[in-house]
Design a protein that fits this description.
The protein has 354 residues and is an all-alpha fold. The chain contains 14 helices and no strands.
């Protein structure tokens, strides 16, 4: 965590990559791509999304993922939190329209509820809180993998025409831009896996740069279309309040729900951090494909929620680190051999922001 936060108060981490994203949004506001430049930016963004999901597929070790299924109750709990509880709360948020949220902001609010969980920040916070780190690694990896398939399907089912019009053509684009590159990465992993492992630092910069390009193209398109006149400071404040309630509900549900299900302290920590957070790294490129011209407003709630979850979970993790451990050790022993941060791609978040 210390390598990825500024030296502000220890309880208030600001991800430097969030600052880069904010700078990219500011650049799009001041110098939006239009005309021929917009066509170039759009084409480059499409290629960047395909590259991202190709690298996701090439990083994921299928054998390690299958081995991690041993702790299936924990992973199923995280998946239910991520793809059932979150979407249900997102649907309940429709009652905030139009008095609190505009229809466009609500679409983004609901979309963030459909995005998969994080990997890297879930691991980091679980480690700080002295929880079951291998479980967090595996749970985050399964959520990211499931999200590649479930997020577009849930968006098509729940967002409907509010998401920019989900048609057979739109679903075909999802398959071509997201699923096909991911499958290609999996098929080629046997030959390129070693190269990706050796150059993971350089490829991490490629990931981050690709997502910045996606953000610039999306927000440029929004500026040219004039959609930012629809967002007032009061609406942004209302959005932040709604997201704070959403995060509080999920943090409470994952912690106390896991206790009711009989999980020990280490597993409860992993469930809380993996089941209450959303991945900016996965959500941004998906939104660019799913929402098209409406992507800028669609990703705004996700960007705000991501920074909020980092700040709140950092405080919780620090408090948990001072709690006494259970007398019965968690099930880490049998996991450590297969799931350690250095053992494979599943331990690495695709980009610096989870």
């Amino acid at each position: 965590m210390s390598r990825r936060t500024l030296k502000l108060p220890s309880w208030l981490p600001i991800d430097p990559y969030i600052l880069a994203l904010i700078g990219t949004v500011a650049l799009a506001a001041l110098l939006p791509a239009s005309g021929a430049a917009a066509d170039v930016a759009g084409g480059a963004s499409t290629g960047a999304v395909a590259l991202l999901f190709f690298l996701y597929g090439a990083r994921l070790s299928t054998a390690e993922a299958l081995d991690g299924l041993k702790h299936w109750r924990l992973h199923l709990t995280v998946l239910i939190c991520t793809f059932v509880a979150f979407p249900l709360l997102g649907l309940a948020g429709e009652g905030l329209v139009p008095y609190v949220l505009t229809p466009q902001l609500y679409s983004g609010f609901l979309f963030l509820c459909l995005v998969p969980s994080t990997i890297q920040s879930s691991i980091a916070f679980t480690s700080i809180a002295r929880g079951n780190v291998p479980a967090a690694i595996c749970a985050g990896s399964f959520s990211s993998l499931a999200g590649i398939f479930l997020t577009p399907l849930l968006a098509a089912a729940l967002l409907g025409s509010s998401g920019g019009g989900f048609s057979a053509d739109a679903l075909l684009k999802i398959g071509v831009q997201l699923l096909l590159p991911f499958v290609a990465g999996q098929l080629l992993r046997r030959w390129i896996g070693g190269f990706i492992t050796r150059h993971k630092k350089v490829l991490g910069y490629v990931d981050r740069g690709s997502i910045l390009l996606v953000v610039y193209a999306a927000f440029s398109e929004g500026m040219v279309a004039g959609i930012w006149h629809q967002v007032t400071p009061a609406r942004l404040g209302a959005l932040l309040a709604a997201e704070a309630v959403l995060l509080a509900l999920m943090l409470t549900l994952t912690w106390h729900g896991a206790k009711r299900l009989g999980f020990d302290r280490g597993d409860r920590i992993a469930i809380q951090f993996a089941g209450s957070k959303k991945s900016l790294a996965s959500g941004l490129p998906m939104a660019s494909v799913l929402f098209g011209a409406h992507a800028s407003l669609a990703v705004l709630p996700l960007m705000l929620f991501h920074q909020m979850q980092l700040m709140v979970c950092a405080v919780i993790a620090k408090r948990r680190s001072h709690e006494p451990l259970d007398s019965q050790a968690p099930q880490e022993g049998r996991w450590e051999r297969a799931w350690t941060p250095a053992s494979g791609a599943a331990a690495e978040e695709p980009v610096a922001v989870g």
